[in-house]
UniProtKB/TrEMBL annotation:
Protein name as annotated: Peroxiredoxin family protein
SUPFAM superfamilies: DsrEFH-like
Organism: Eiseniibacteriota bacterium
InterPro entries registered for this protein in UniProt: DsrE2-like (IPR032836), DsrEFH-like (IPR027396)
Amino acid sequence: MLKEQEIVKVESPEKKDDEKVRKMLLILSKATLDNVYAGFILANGARMEGIEAEIFFTFFGLEAINKKKMEKLHVATVGNPAMHIPTMVGGLPGMEALATKMMKSEMEKLDIPGVSEFLEMLSASGVKLWACKLAMEMFHLDKEDLYEDIDGVLTVGDFYERAEGKGTQLLFI
């Protein structure tokens, strides 16, 4: 575990105003616990730095804002090289549940909020939350199925239009 004195702050070279990141657009396509929290933490970090942030939930990423599924996300144990376990072992009954329980336990120790609470924090800080229209149609979802504070349902084209302007970064998670 890193102690405070071990954390090194790297000074960034001064950037011209037109080179600074002003807006982060995150595309979340998977609702594994690690992917969802990576997206949420990046969006939250952007807002803490005064950077606009938006998350576009598409395909299985919609589960992160699906009211029935958002608090039941899992860690993927199969096909996840970061697990450092063979695929066959990761596929054994109970491995995914065990890995998920362990990760949630570590997150709780760090006081990381649950999905719905984190979404509330993101929304309150000004992060825009968008659902993908095509994915919603494909999975037969209505806006009522989703977290109530999403900002709307967009097509991919509508989302890309939001990327206009200098200083906008697009990140696919």
